[in-house]
Amino acid sequence: MRVLVILMCTFATGCAATFREQVSARPAGIQRSVRGELNRELLWPETKQILFVVERVEGHEPEREALDALVRLASRYGGRPASWQRHETNAPLTLEPDTSYVLVRYVGDQTSHFGVAYSELIDDHPVYVILINQEAHRKFRMLVPQAKLEEQTLVHEYGHHLGLPTQDHGYYLGGLHCVNPNCALAKPRLKAILYNAFHIVFGGHYLEDYCEECRRAIDAARKHWGESAP
Ligand SMILES: [Zn+2]
Ligand SMILES: [Zn+2]
User: Fold this and answer.
1) At 126, which helix (H) or strand (E)?
2) Distance from the alpha carbon of residue 90 to the mean position of ligand 2, in angstroms
3) Which of 87, 136, 190, 208 has the fewest CB neighbours in a 10 Å radius?
């Protein structure tokens, strides 16, 4: 009955609040998976462009539409041009100082997760890495188009690189995730799945952007950076 009520609520009003997770404090000894604060480099246009370097290590070809969508989102949040280009796996990367780099590696079943985000230093230049298991997504393409599945994971992992969500509306489960089910940073638990299944079926909406609370946190950070600029 409770599930039915929740489903009716979603159908009638789309009320994300019903499916919200509880905010949780950071458990002792747990580090943020990627960063502890919003990522100024990707959100404040101090470099000229954001370049996504795409490698296919194993498995099917990347869905180009998903990468196009990721680039549009990164440009919008980064306030500067963004683009993606293919790169031969493990070939040396020549990094330009006025460019921010995100390395997207399609690794197939080399990871058991849909996606993973971490950063590393290459020649003292921070590089934001996203691993995506495109093969794991293919198991669900009878329900959701493959490009949309990959886009949701790419936007989710990129959100971790942006430093989202902030602590005030995050909960810990395999890293910090957003309590709001209508956010690309939601962890796909039952509540978020129920909420989004209805929105996909009835509204054609996917988890392809961050929620209002995440966007407010970005606006607040930008305001702070703007005020503290010399
Ligand atoms: Zn995550
Ligand atoms: Zn959010």
Assistant:
1) strand 125-132
2) 33
3) 190
Q: Which of 30-34, 70-74, 157-161, 183-187 has the lowest mean pLDDT?
A: 30-34
- Residue 166 alpha carbon to ligand 2 centre in Å: 8
Q: In degrees to the nearest 10, what's the CA dihedral of 79, 165, 196, 59?
A: 70
Q: Tally Cβ neighbours within 10 Å of residue 190.
A: 11
Domain ranges of the chain: 30-227
At the topology level, CATH places domain 30-227 in Collagenase (Catalytic Domain) (3.40.390)
CA of 94 to the centre of ligand 2 (A): 34
Distance 160 CA to ligand 1 centre (A): 7
Q: Residue 66 Cα, ligand 2 centroid: separation in angstroms?
A: 20
In this structure, are residues 128 and 156 in contact, taking their beta carbons and an 8 Å threshold? Answer: no
pLDDT given at position 3: 44
The predicted-structure confidence for 84-124, as pLDDT tens digits, reads as follows: 999 998 888 889 999 999 999 999 999 988 899 999 998 88
